[in-house]
């Protein structure tokens, strides 16, 4: 007869699990009670405003605690450290395979994919264009080459800021012109192939986002909440490896000015895009809209600090949690220098319970000025946007608009620091679009429960046009192709495994 060993249960895990169930039920009781009260006896206008404020405060406190406990389930009993270390192993293995493919032992036997970096758009868009082509290159076992002697941003070229992608040159006969296009008849056997912009492809390749290479699919799906974003982030990070020397030193100095490596205090990154695309691709958002989510994040950390004092529920959690509230540190990156004045005017006078400034705003208005439309395409502006996006990616939580390529790029790069951020798939809040990748394949979501009103069954796949961040998402109904607003919780993103024949990560190096 085997002996029962209570140590195997993971005490903290079960304490948090039971608490999460209780908090979920308390949330339901609260909402049901309040709504029934309002239905049976509608309050007056003044009473209603007061009751809404009271309800909002209680409900926010409940959901903060619920989120803290659910996040804790993935950290306690040593699970957080184990997950970060396992993700780090996948990152190392993936990067090693990229480097091996980009720098083969015998360049004369290699095949090549050439991309013109100077797509007619901004830096984030250009990196995403190159990263999309990088997917095609690794899938087909080709070396990626960038044509970038002169950038739209800088006549000094790509390698004035970033490391060369490969040691292998293009064959001399094809160093100037590559006339075989990806997707054209017989391109698979050509030595050198040109990767056009996604808008010019006859059809979206099966390797495009959100495809995840089969050789890393299973461990990545186990350990990370957005594997396709992880892949895109690692490809972009390889493209954006900074040159050693002054540029790398300058970036290191910037990151240390944002956060001392010995200080665990979190920083929230806020990216405000204002000068272009407003009223064409994106809506104008006031700075206070971003700060709403900054406060929401720090309120959650305050709840975590309070409840983690009950140590039985947090054994084996290596997260650094202070015994007093954090100063609310906010890194601002923007193309509008007036945002810094908005921050000071609206939030600079707010103080904490000790009378100390509640917020600390970090950022450089000069970098914002360089992003103005009149000076955007200069070498200085290139350095500024690179500094902004890398700095944003090193924050603990990102508030941005995913209509912005820079916002999406920063989020992607966040996935490449596993030891610091772990699974960073939930470390964001977008004020507008849900995450997408330009030129992606149709990215389906799967219903996890039935929706009787539309006859959607659990397991049905739907196209999702966007999450409205109000509890609802716009979806395309599978049978009628009509659009409908449905509760967003009913759907989860599909996981798309695709065999990349030219890219095989060594299984022995994976967790």
UniProtKB/TrEMBL annotation:
Q: Where is the GT23 domain?
A: 109-431
The GO annotation for biological process reads: protein N-linked glycosylation
Q: Which GO terms describe its molecular function?
A: alpha-(1->6)-fucosyltransferase activity
Alphabetized Pfam families for the sequence: FUT8_N_cat (PF19745)
Keywords on this record? Glycosyltransferase, Transferase
What residue spans carry the region label Important for donor substrate binding?
273-274
- Highest taxon in the source lineage: Eukaryota
- Is Membrane among the key words of this record? no
Gene3D superfamilies given for it? 3.40.50.11350, SH3 Domains
Does the keyword section mention Cell cycle?
no
Give the family from UniProt: Belongs to the glycosyltransferase 23 family.
Kindly provide the name given to this protein in its UniProt entry.
GT23 domain-containing protein
Question: Which organism does this sequence originate in?
Answer: Rodentolepis nana (Dwarf tapeworm)
Identify the taxonomic lineage of the organism of origin. Eukaryota, Metazoa, Spiralia, Lophotrochozoa, Platyhelminthes
